[in-house]
Amino acid sequence: MYINLVGSLRKYFIFLTLVAAFIYLCTHLVKNNPEIGLGLFKNESAFLINNIMDDEAKLLSSNSSQIFFLETHLEGRRNLTNARQACSVEAAAKTNPDHQIYLLLATNETQMTMERSVLYDALAAYPNINIRYVNLLEYSRGTPLEQFMIEDKLSKSKFRIEHTSDVMRILTLYKYGGLYLDLDVLSIFPVRIINKKNFVCLEGHNHFSNAIIKLDLNEGKKFSTAYVEKLRTNFNGDDWTVNGPSMISSVFRSFCNGTDLPKDKAGECEVLTAFPNQKCFVIMYKNFTKFYEPEFSSEMFERVKQVGGYFIHIWNKMLEFNNKHYKLDYDSKAAYVELAKVYCPRVMDTKVSF
């Protein structure tokens, strides 16, 4: 009887050990690979996502081969519900399989929960898409903007979401190098073929956009440092554009000793290239509705072909400003939907309205 009891206890101990090992393995896999977590726990409606700081060593050794998107609403729990934004992330991943794509979610919290959705599953199918959260104070440590974050200037801004994005994008390129894209920018041309380590995009005569910025960690450091320092000393929470397009234009003029750059011609300054607006936007905001209206589809495709652009800016913010509401479904003949079927097919297959 004693021998039987010992044998039973041994089997029970072995069983508990195996269960503990399985739980540890699953936890480790989910922590480091959220997309694997989805495969293991199909019924989970929400899960924790990783901190970008966990990827810092990889980012610093990547030779600036990463593309960043930002979402700066600052809530502690997120759900990917915007198909247009998900489309931009997928397009970057599909067009640039040799780059790591990061969707960074800003927060003041020390952890973040992501809700499952069909859009998340669509993005998780790509091995080069990474969704990470960013704690702003932790992110700024050891940079010129550390005290700026300690003073919590962003929360006092009248345009908190927009200004958080303005600050985070240049801080990210300062820290890691790479390409920053707004969430309403479609990548239609591989970055490796563009073959420029550092570039910005003209929006008007001597006026730049900060929707698309590429800076190498080393060669672009002088420009990113100048921009970060200007933010530190000249941040203005009362004006929507002053920390973004206005500031990057000012930094460029100072960096390039007042070089005159028309909006439709490329320019060079030290290691920095300024692309003309059509290479980055295809159409400007005055005509932005044409991407959403089927009757202009042929005109838009001809325009895309004619200018040979690297990106397409679909001007989501201008829709808000002009109170335009285009709800597009899979069968729409609008140019944007037709482009999305090519550049973000997995998002389109979800049939979530745009």
List the helices and strands and how they pair.
Layout: H1 2-32, H2 34-40, E1 46-48, E2 50-51, H3 56-60, E3 66-74, E4 77-79, H4 83-95, E5 100-107, E6 113-115, H5 118-124, E7 129-135, H6 136-140, H7 146-150, H8 160-176, E8 178-181, E9 185-187, H9 191-194, E10 199-204, E11 207-215, H10 221-234, H11 245-255, E12 267-269, E13 272-275, H12 277-281, H13 297-307, E14 311-313, H14 316-321, H15 335-343, H16 345-349
Parallel strand pairs: 2-7, 3-5, 3-8, 4-6, 5-7, 10-13
Antiparallel strand pairs: 1-6, 8-11, 9-14, 10-11, 12-13
Could you list some keywords that capture this structure?
about 350 residues; about 45% helix; 9-stranded mixed beta sheet; about 20% strand; globular; Spore Coat Polysaccharide Biosynthesis Protein SpsA, Chain A; alpha/beta; 2 domains; 3-stranded mixed beta sheet; 14 strands
Give a verbal description of the structure.
The protein has 354 residues and is of the alpha/beta class. The chain folds into two domains: 32 residues; 232 residues, Spore Coat Polysaccharide Biosynthesis Protein SpsA, Chain A, CATH 3.90.550. Helix content is 44%, strand content 19%. It has a nine-stranded mixed sheet, sandwiched between helices. It has a three-stranded mixed sheet with strand order 1-6-4, with no helix packed on it. Strands 9-14 form a two-stranded antiparallel ribbon. A hairpin with a 2-residue loop joins strand 10 and strand 11. Helix 4 runs parallel beside helix 5.
Summarize this entry quickly:
The protein has 354 residues and is an alpha/beta fold.
Annotated CATH topology of the largest domain = Spore Coat Polysaccharide Biosynthesis Protein SpsA, Chain A
Separate helix tally = 16
Intertermini distance: 70 Å
Gyration radius over CA: 23 Å
Topology pattern, helix = H, strand = E: HHEEHEEHEEHEHHHEEHEEHHEEHHEHHH
Give the oligomeric state.
single chain
Uncertain segments are 34-43
Q: How many DSSP E strands?
A: 14
| Arithmetic mean pLDDT | 85
Task: Please identify the top-level CATH class of the largest domain.
Answer: Alpha Beta
Globally, the shape reads: globular
CATH architecture tag of the largest domain: Alpha-Beta Complex
